[in-house]
Queue: 2 jobs
Job 1
Amino acid sequence: AQTVTQSQPEMSVQEAETVTLSCTYDTSENNYYLFWYKQPPSRQMILVIRQEAYKQQNATENRFSVNFQKAAKSFSLKISDSQLGDTAMYFCAFMRGYGGSQGNLIFGKGTKLSVKP
Amino acid sequence: DARVTQTPRHKVTEMGQEVTMRCQPILGHNTVFWYRQTMMQGLELLAYFRNRAPLDDSGMPKDRFSAEMPDATLATLKIQPSEPRDSAVYFCASGSSTGYGYTFGSGTRLTVV
């Protein structure tokens, strides 16, 4: 069975600084996807970034980037130039890939990030 | 932007009452999920459907929970009878077979007193 571990329950960062959230996962699959979701106080789950396991290049979306280490089964999220609006719970998630179709999302417990002015 | 619509947004009910939560997935998405979020357990999968067929409901207490997709535009999650331990936020999410993840609804916050 796949598991996702986020070892940092809470983190804080000063506005405009950079912060890295950690995530490790365990799987015997070779074909899978990894995601980071953001959940602000509004409780809406928002997809931040995705990574395909077969791609070596790390995904980047504006101020968000990942460090994907497949052999180490590590998938960290870096937020650059942190903004107050980045304050939220961040969930790392794993999904098996069945060829062209999708499987279930397995979530970590989340990291609560606070951006301080 | 296309969105997943969940109703109601909040629900307070008494123990023993029936609760029905509804979800309208994004048009064209063929996969629909129900997740439950609690402080203790985090995000747990309850059930999911592909092309309206149930694929996995192993996370759902079968004696009181049921999930259906009567048509492609509606998914329902029903609890009967409800219990205080069912208090949680219930999310619906939909996606297509492209590996791009899922779009979540705003959730239904259920409180059973």
Job 2
Amino acid sequence: DAGVTQSPTHLIKTRGQHVTLRCSPISGHKSVSWYQQVLGQGPQFIFQYYEKEERGRGNFPDRFSARQFPNYSSELNVNALLLGDSALYLCASSPVRGDSPLHFGNGTRLTVT
Amino acid sequence: AQSVTQLDSQVPVFEEAPVELRCNYSSSVSVYLFWYVQYPNQGLQLLLKYLSGSTLVESINGFEAEFNKSQTSFHLRKPSVHISDTAEYFCAVFNQAGTALIFGKGTTLSVSS
């Protein structure tokens, strides 16, 4: 089975622009989560979606939003990009909502100039 | 609130030497603990997990970790490391709702010959 897939792998944007990152979970997994990993740090939780509804949100500004589609894939949107948004964005999936190991994709490297 | 502290930011060792990567956690609820490994330019891979049962958990590539409730620790060990074990290692615990992983800052394991 394919693992978690993310696209694009790399992205360069300018301050103030908008970006959309995409994620396809492992087949059969209904929960998708998004994490931000700044260079040299551990990943920070942004969102969790389960059965197309937001189930958890981390400490990120409203510029960050996400959604989950009927096929359980997900998009992360970031508006009004700042230099500090430069990071590796990781998507993870799990079969159930909570207390189950997360399976991560290889991430999207976002650079904001 | 849950938190994770990885006590060493960098651990340099020689090939075939033993290694221990230390992790302490803080949690007021039932604990589910994980170690993830991240190779350069890749996402996170689950190395091993503690959900319940035996306090000693093992991975397929020779790593093991022991859950110690009294010391609130989940240290990762390997009796003999290989060059290929060079990577970033993250310890993580689920938040109280069980919906998001809280990661430590990571430990860089550098194995040299």
